[in-house]
Amino acid sequence: MAETQHTQLVCYTLLCILLVAIVVKLKLKLRRGAGRLNQLPPGPWALPVIGHMHLLLGAIPHQAMHRLARRHGPVMLLRLGHVPTLVLSSAEAAREVMKVHDAAFADRPVYATANIFTYGGEDISFARHDSRHWKALRKLCAVELLSPRRVRSFRRVREEEAARLVRSVADAGPVVNVGDMLKVMMNDVVMRASVGDRCAQRDAYLEELDRVLDLMSGFNFIDLFPASRLARAIGGRALGATWEVHRRIHSIMDAMISDHRTAMEGEDDNDAGREQRGDVLTTLLRFQRDGGIGGVALTNENISGVLFDLFAAGSETTATTTIWAMSELMRSPHIMAAEQSEVRQVLHGKTEVTEADIDGRLHYLHMVIKETFRLHPPVPLLMPRLCTEQTKVMGYDIPEGTTVFVNVSAIGRDEKSWTDANEFTPKRFDGEKVDYGGTDFRFLPGGAGRRMCPGMMFGVSNIEMALASLLHHFDWKLPDGGNPEKLDMSEAYGITARRRTELVLEATVFVP
Fold first, then answer.
1. Strand 385-386 to strand 403-406: parallel, antiparallel, or no bridges (unpaired)?
2. Could you tell me the pTM of the whole model?
3. What residues bind heme, as annotated (predicted)?
């Protein structure tokens, strides 16, 4: 008995010595770093190894982060696995990262899945911001691929696909899955604008793209535990499916490029109007053939990466936003009535919707679209940024290597910035000088600074055409006399903040 007690005493003594040694070591480490990092942002208590991952399990990330920010503040530091992660939930904090210190936060963290599909960052979204090819591609987007002139040149595509949407609703009615039909329209608009009217690989590419978006909607263990051999083993096995999808989508993209090159062989270089009429892939191949842009050659990987960005971001986000806009209009019959009145007055006597008829004339519809972006940003956590040098944000020290998420969903619902922030009130934008340019940090559907989305004008034009067509041609109600106030508005987990349930409505054809 005495021997057992002695053994226990020795074990307890050794345990106490170990704990004291750990505490002393931590204090010394903190003291050594005190001169560099005086004040880290607040955050919840972290668990060993996994950090704060348990606080996000089973939850929609931007919602869980918003709840945590209410307790810990708009500048909050989390640890996801081994990765320090800064979450910003106010306009002031977003402004510091995307304007005041934009250069220090302009890079992207390297995620295993995204790295595969973007050919190691050969695209616009994930390339290093100081690389020559990123600057060249960004300039190409601004001047050619997504310029106002080029967006206007796709009017015919938008009008034809909107007319096809109307026919699909009329043929399938009266009860229709509006969400599915809007996804088809946006996919076809982006596909035709990107690779032309006739693309033999259309269906195969879109099928693989759905798999890509699913794969990119979560983290890989390699991303969260980069130094762990076990995580690399588990994550490596999981990446096997990613590489298989990449091989298939790469093969499809190669076929698209080959088909376009063949079609361009007999092209008349003196056709001055061809450059404006061409799809994005044709334009990219012309620049590649002519030596690149700004002295930077365009590789096939660059071209594939840019097209991947357009497909992945251009169709899913616009479809999601349009579906949410229809959902909010259904929940607010008086706003629906006001918007339909505007559309039908502008298109009085017209049997088809054309952009020439509605261009600049649907002021209330634009407020509806902005209010939808505010309440339902399609990407509620902007694509992550990487802190490349120690920086102060709102008085807090941000260590180099920190991943940064801007929670635009929380910013759009911030009561300090918006009156009745959780209410759908389009008229709040009446007289407000709020646009999509990333200058008002209360409203950031496309981000701001060096990394803001270059395709916002293209996306908004697609949304406007789809909504105007649906509201002009049909009257809408919930099936079986459903109560609009009880329409399910919950979100699903994914790369975009989609509806959890399908939007199924009853359409009645409106005869002007």
1. antiparallel
2. 0.90
3. 453
